[in-house]
Design brief:
This is Reverse transcriptase domain-containing protein. By secondary structure, the protein is an alpha+beta fold. The protein is globular and about 115 Å long.
Length: about 950
């Protein structure tokens, strides 16, 4: 050991600083002996930085605490920001005291000469002082007793070292017990502060598990940064200054607001706004903010989140919502009358998060998240909640990011169908994916407000927005230190609930300009031309005449950027050639600044190939390799099997589900079997399973642990497409391209006979995959039969006569008539009976109905046409889009499985000599999973 320390040049630092002292770090109660077996070693070169090494008292362990203090030229004291200690709310006296202080403050100061905004902002200072006083008093009392106990413990330890007196040792144990009691109070606060509710959350998919799985928590520490001048800064002050300079430049990059600029923006927007809010819609935005609205958004806020600079977290507003929310509503309503928001309320702390795969020595490689004051977040959440219902009408369906009712898979499915259409029809096409630089942070405010005004947003709502963007300031937090405040002059702050909606609205004029430009050629679908798809600032252009279209796209970007401050990094924007000729590709490479991809392109987290037969190979095996690597690394963590199930739900399942939904191809059976086998081995730590997989997959209220069934979710990801085919879904644009690939409409395709399906179905990899899954699952899980009540009476190759328009005109949607529309009480009726009319049927109508009945009688198992629809068929008949589709369809598939009770229920019934009902078992399971929180 000595030789090893000598080779490594390590020194026992405590002995160096205390050469003549005699102290110990360990006491053996069995042998009643003291020894020093715990050491702190430092390098020779770092010895000069050591200021203190100390052996402390033994409190709750046989080992003493050792501490080492060092001073470095690179250290900088962290900036202290007050934050409410929410553990104070566990004391009923404190809760009552603060409630009384709030009531007294508002009663005494709510005078006519004080504006509601000032009254609200000043209450924070008053209550902050009260809370600081209470916390300081409690801390002083606790520290005073703790320090005295530590002195007594140290004195008794030294006495016991000399005498080994049993009486002294008994007194020592009593002192330690009291110290442990005091420490438990501090431990509770520490648990709250670090969000580590280990006893509650170690087996739940929450933040604690996320931190345990995180590879490098130290990634948040920034050792050095490259400044704008190119020099590398490593000292703390220089690092903070570099980030401040970068964000100061970023948030003041927009053009200066002038009347001439506003006029030019208006001229740009006028032909590019396709819809304005109606008077009624605009008026609903301007209604006074109510306490009920604030309570609704407050309920959705999560506890334990970092507060803004004022230090008041969500828990404060939830605890005193009856007192605070009416005053906050009054304060916010005063803003629309012209009272400005105080500067302090608009201040934010910017937390920087490194982007994956980026150079961490560059300021551009970090994502700025604004930590806003909680009351400001409630304010912006109410504004977002009001605006949200109208955004789908103001933003066309090309934009799928942050718009209610739209999903990322709408963009990926559209891109995949565009590739198939171009390849199948021989249309020359390329895909252009653009890289926007800090798009959210560069939005010019004049352009933002002119766009909102052009869309019909006006009055009080626009006044509220203007107040939110009235000279806000920010400080950058780097390695625990805060920069000096600086003013923000452009951008929508990431961390504000309103920002995604505002960004989608400001980008819509550009997207509309591309749609209207006749020189930009897209891909023809069944009913429209497809030019682009966007998820927030991630844009994908489908270009069919690149020699003309690409320069026009660049020109559109230049025109839009002059007003909106958007900047596109052309050299990082990528092109994927689908089927252009080699000569044209060489010409475009020489004339355009874009980067050309070789064989595949990354878009919204998936790989797009020119050949869709490679979709599985370039997407699924790489993801599974990454998941297996993670599982292998996490296998060594000390997590219970309950916790490991939580790991699957929190980390593994979302990544698989995203790929299932965005790349709906057939997966080899052995691939899914391998996933299921590997996940089971991870949960049981490579040992034999102790619980049946079927039991684990049951919901918690049914005796399981909701273990994720990957195979069932894979089936659900295809079945959701069948539902959207049948109902028209959310009107996603990929349906237009996918429907153009076959001669039979998508709504009819799953319900006709397999032998009647057109041959072009098999050439479409996505259609063929979904129909194969549907054919297998409909039979195995009893989702439907053939024939089905949903059998189409139009566009059915087996019934070419179709139902006459005069007969189907009164049957709901005349474009989608099914057998179920002609049945009542399990009996088939003529259309004129289902929907009575004053005139009798004509001869042609009678003949057409005879044709129909003849066709239906010729079908095998025709009695199935008159049965009640299954649960899945009812989903396909619904007039409302399916929400939470994967979960709903997974539950449908689970419900179709055998419903035999878990074996342990049978054993308990036998042991108790009674049969417990389903309600009793549900209560038992609920108490089992939630009882520890009571």
């Amino acid at each position: 050991m000595r030789r090893r320390l000598h080779d490594l040049q390590l020194i026992d630092v405590w002995r160096v600083l205390h050469p003549l002292d005699r102290d110990f770090t360990y006491f053996s109660s069995v042998h009643s002996s003291y020894t020093r077996i715990d050491y702190l070693f430092v390098s020779h070169f770092e010895l000069s930085s050591v200021t203190e090494a100390k052996i402390h008292s033994r409190t709750w362990s046989d080992h003493a605490l050792l501490s080492l203090s060092m001073m470095s030229s690179h250290s900088r004291p962290k900036h202290f920001q007050w934050r409410l200690n929410t553990s104070l709310f566990t004391d009923p006296m404190v809760v009552t005291t603060i409630a009384e202080a709030l009531e007294y403050y508002f009663d005494e100061n709510d005078k006519n000469e004080t504006t509601p905004v000032t009254l609200w902002e000043a209450h924070k200072a008053t209550i902050r002082g009260q809370l600081i006083g209470i916390a300081s008093k409690k801390k002083k009392e606790r520290l005073l007793e703790t320090n005295q106990l530590l002195l007594d413990i140290r004195s008794l330890e030294l006495s016991h070292m000399r005498s080994h007196d049993i009486t002294v040792y008994g007194q020592l144990l009593l002192k330690r017990a009291r110290l442990a009691e005091l420490s438990n109070l501090q431990l509770h606060h520490t648990i709250l502060k670090t969000k580590c509710f280990f006893a509650y959350n170690e087996n739940k998919p929450g933040r604690l598990l996320a931190r345990m799985l995180r590879k490098k928590r130290a990634q948040t520490y920034i050792p050095c940064i490259r400044s704008t001048s190119g020099q590398v800064a490593s000292l703390p002050d220089d690092i903070v200054a570099s980030f401040r300079d970068y964000y100061l430049g970023l948030y003041s990059s927009a053009p200066v607001d002038t009347p001439a600029l506003r006029h030019s923006i208006t001229e740009y927007l006028t032909p590019r706004i396709h819809r304005r809010l109606t008077g009624v819609e605009s008026a609903s935005l301007n209604d006074p903010i109510t306490t009920a609205e604030l309570a609704s958004v407050l309920k959705k806020q999560k506890n334990g989140k970092s507060p803004g600079p004022d230090g008041f977290p969500t828990e404060y507003y939830k605890k005193y919502r009856e007192i605070l929310l009416p005053r906050l509503a009054r304060s916010l309503n005063a803003i629309k009358d012209g009272t400005p928001i105080h500067t302090q309320a608009l201040q934010a702390a910017i937390a920087i998060i490194p982007k994956e795969g980026k150079d961490t020595s560059l300021c551009t490689s970090y994502r700025p998240i604004s930590l806003l004051n909680c009351d400001l977040k409630l304010f912006s959440s109410v504004l977002a909640m009001r605006l949200q219902p109208y955004v789908p009408h103001l933003v066309r369906k090309d934009q799928v990011g942050f718009v209610p009712g739209r999903e990322a898979r709408d963009g990926t499915l559209r891109a995949l169908n565009a590739i198939h259409t171009a390849s199948h029809t021989g249309t020359p096409m390329l895909l252009l994916s653009t890289d926007a630089e800090k798009a959210f942070d560069r939005v010019a405010w004049p352009f933002l407000f002119e766009t909102l005004n052009a869309m019909g947003v006006s009055g009080s709502y626009l006044t509220w927005l203007a107040a939110l963007y009235s000279r806000p300031t920010a400080m950058v937090r780097v390695n625990g230190a805060l920069s000096n405040p600086f003013e923000i002059r452009n951008g929508t702050r990431q961390g504000c609930p309103l920002s995604p909606l505002l960004f989608a609205l400001t980008l819509e004029p550009f997207l509309e300009s591309v749609r209207l430009n006749p020189n930009i050629s897209g891909l023809r679908g069944r009913t429209r031309e497809h030019k682009l798809s966007a998820y927030a600032d991630d844009m994908l252009f489908m270009v069919t005449n690149p020699r003309v279209s690409l320069p026009e796209i660049i020109a559109e970007f230049d025109m839009y950027s002059a007003y909106s401050n958007l900047r596109i990094n052309m050299s990082k924007s990528e092109i994927l050639n689908i089927n252009l000729s080699g000569a044209l590709v060489r010409e475009l490479r020489c004339t355009l600044p874009f980067n050309w991809c070789e064989g595949k392109m990354r878009f919204l987290g998936i790989w797009l190939p020119p050949d869709l037969t490679k979709l599985y190979d370039i997407n699924f095996p790489p993801l599974w390799d990454a998941l297996q690597t993670d599982l292998k690394e996490w296998s060594s963590l000390k997590i219970s099997w309950f916790g490991r199930v939580g790991v699957l739900k929190m980390n593994i399942l979302p990544r698989l589900l995203y790929l299932f939904s965005t790349v709906p191809v057939l997966l080899p059976p052995d691939f899914l079997a391998s996933i299921r086998r590997t996940l089971s081995r991870f949960v049981w730590s490579q040992t034999r399973p102790r619980v049946r997989l079927h039991t684990m997959m049951l919901p918690k209220q049914a005796g399981g642990v909701a273990y994720p069934d990957v195979c069932r979710y894979f089936l659900a990801s295809h079945l959701i497409r069948v539902v959207e085919w049948s109902t028209g879904g959310r009107g996603a644009l990929w349906l237009d391209l996918e429907g153009d690939a076959v001669t039979v409409p998508l709504w009819a395709l799953p319900w006709i006979s397999r032998s009647d399906r057109p041959g072009d179905v098999t050439s479409h990899p996505l259609l063929a995959a979904t129909l194969r899954v549907w054919d297998r699952t409909a039979r195995s899980h009893r989702l439907s039969t053939f024939p089905s009540p949903l059998l189409p009476l139009m566009h059915n190759p087996a019934f070419p006569a179709n139902l006459r328009m005069s007969l189907r005109g009164s049957l709901g949607d005349p474009r989608r008539v099914r057998v179920i529309h002609l049945t009542r009480d399990s009996v088939l009726h003529p259309p004129w009976v289902i929907s009575p009319r004053p005139t009798p049927p004509t001869i042609l109508e009678l003949f057409n109905y005879r044709q129909l009945t003849h066709y239906l009688r010729s079908l095998p198992g025709r009695h199935r046409l008159l049965r009640e629809p299954t649960q899945f068929e009812n989903l396909c008949l619904s007039n409302t889009p399916l929400s939470h589709g994967l979960s709903v369809l997974s539950a449908v598939l689970r419900g179709s499985d055998s419903a035999e009770p878990p074996s342990h229920e049978v054993r308990w019934d036998r042991a108790l000599g009674a049969v417990l009902g389903e309600e009793d078992w549900t209560k038992t399971y609920t108490l089992t999973h939630r009882g520890t929180r009571q």
